[in-house]
Amino acid sequence: MNHQLALHLADNALILGHRNSEWTGHGPVLEQDIAISNIALDLIGQARNFYQYAAQLINQSTQQPNIPSTEDSLAYLRESHEFKNCLLVEQPNGDWAKTILRQFFFSAYQFYYYQELQKSKDSTLAAIAEKSLKEVTYHLRWSSEWVIRLGDGTDESRSRMLKAIDELWMYTDELFENTSYEHKAASEGFGVDISLFKNDWDKKVKEVFEEATLPIPTKELNNVNWFGKEGKHSEHLGNILAEMQFLQRAYPGCEW
Amino acid sequence: MKENEKIWEILETVNDPEVPVLSIIDLGIVRGVDSFISPLGGNGANISITPTYSGCPAMDVISMTIRMVLMENGFKEIKINTVLSPAWTTDWMSEAGKEKLKAFGIAPPTPKQQVCHTPLFHDGEAIQCPRCNSYHTKLISQFGSTACKAMYQCLDCQEPFDYFKCH
Ligand SMILES: [Zn+2]
Questions:
Q1: B21 and chain A: CB distance < 8 Å anywhere?
Q2: How far is the centre of ligand 1, averaged over its atoms, from the C-alpha of A134 (Å)?
Q3: I want to staple B44 with a disulfide (CB 3.0 to 4.6 A). Which of A130, A209, B5, B38 is the partner?
Q4: B119 has a chain A CB within 8 A of its CB
Q5: Residue A231 belongs to some domain of the structure
Q6: DSSP single-letter state for residue B154
Q7: Do B78 and B21 share a structural domain?
């Protein structure tokens, strides 16, 4: 089992968790501030589990590493191009509608992904997936309800949802584009063949969008020139890392 | 064997820092204990614990507290192992734990896992108000003050309350 897949899964969860945590103290109402912060916490917890495992795999494959990898070194000391998260999760929060839609697209993806990953031949990945799936079930339900509430809400909320779809739909293609490490892990029985649940994802989006009276974009909007899962990111990731990694970069090994 | 029973008894004194009326045994997060003779001399203990939620910030405090109480009780070497599978479920909460929760003002998890799998916008099974016992209650938010709780309100006595949500 190669560490790249574990890193990819960790990075996805960490970056979306970090984005969501930017709402803490700024949510539209107290209950939803708490909800998005809880989701952030779940995601960062999932990221920690994947990072710990990735660190273990890296340390095993390096003979006597001078400085062993840890969950912290992987989160705080890698450069933007070393991150393997998809572009969707690094998109700025925008307004509540955009944050909700990003969460919905990603939770639906994670939901089907973890269902498959539970069957992995790698018992650690399977265990993390089993644990995380329970959390994601809540995230998916919550974000689905909000997509419907806003899409089928007022003129204002609806127009914001439409704008969010315009801004985010183009990044959903990448979720289902295989990288070489995903392909390899899937063929060896450790990873997941992401094409297996593309139809489930499409169906879920259709179901929720229909109830939200939102149009489903039909045209493939694959005009994005970057590929986040292979380290080609937008400038947004650099901005996230500048903030998130500042303390460990300025004061290496700092604890409090 | 005797030594293992002693460890379980000691762990009964470790409380969940976020819901301090519950011991970690009530919560069902201790999955196994095993005593051994430490090469350092004296007894050692292997403890397996499982998190309630992936990001539960209480886990570090719980591990530290386990270590401290076992050392106070003469254990020389303590190994704490985190297991993720099978994933923790509210079904593992003890009956005593559920009663303590209710007395503390938190509605205990219902035995059937219906709330996890209800259709959108449905509250699912009625949750009983821990104060007045009414089932006339309403879900405010699936996410509460900690990862393991949801927010409800009683429509009879009007009090908002926490529900230890099914998982
Ligand atoms: Zn009441």
A1: no
A2: 29
A3: B38
A4: no
A5: yes
A6: E
A7: yes
Intra-chain end-to-end CA distance of chain A, in Å: 34
A152 touches B at CB < 8 Å: no
- CATH value at residue A114: 1.20.1260.10
Q: Which domain holds residue B61?
A: 3-82
Strand ranges across the sheet with B77-82: B30-37, B43-49, B77-82
Instruction: Give pairs for A156-159: CB < 8 Å, separation 24+.
Output: A157/A97, A158/A213, A158/A214
What is the whole-number distance in angstroms between the Cα of residue A116 and the centre of ligand 1? 42
- Compute the average pLDDT of residues B42-66: 94
Nearest to A127 among B57, B85, B151 (CB): B85
- In tens, the pLDDT along B92-124 reads 999 999 999 999 999 999 876 554 566 788 777
Q: What is the ipTM of this complex?
A: 0.88
Q: What is the enclosing helix (H) or strand (E) of B77? A: strand B77-82
Query: Which residues in chain B are closer than 8 Å to A44, comparing Cβ atoms?
Result: 55
Q: Is residue A256 part of a domain?
A: no
Count structural domains, chain A.
1
Count the Cβ atoms, other than its own, within 10 Å of residue A243: 10
Q: Where are the alpha helices (DSSP H) in B18-142?
A: 24-27, 58-72, 95-104
What is the mean predicted confidence (pLDDT) over A172-177? 93
Q: Tell me, yes or no, whether A39 lies in a domain.
A: yes
Out of B51, B143, B167, whose CB is closest to A38? Answer: B143
Name the residue in chain A with its Cα closest to that of B83: A127
Q: Which domain holds residue A100?
A: 2-218+227-250
Boundary (domain end) residue, out of B40, B59, B82: B82
Cβ–Cβ below 8 Å for A39 and B120: no
Chain B residues with beta carbon closer than 8 angstroms to that of A123: 85
Counted domains in chain B: 2
What integer is the mean pLDDT of A40-49?
97
Please judge whether B51 and A45 are an interchain contact, meaning their C-beta atoms are less than 8 angstroms apart.
yes
- Residue A255 in any domain: the answer is no
Contact B134, B161 (CB under 8 A): no
Regarding whether B10 and B78 lie in a shared domain, the answer is yes
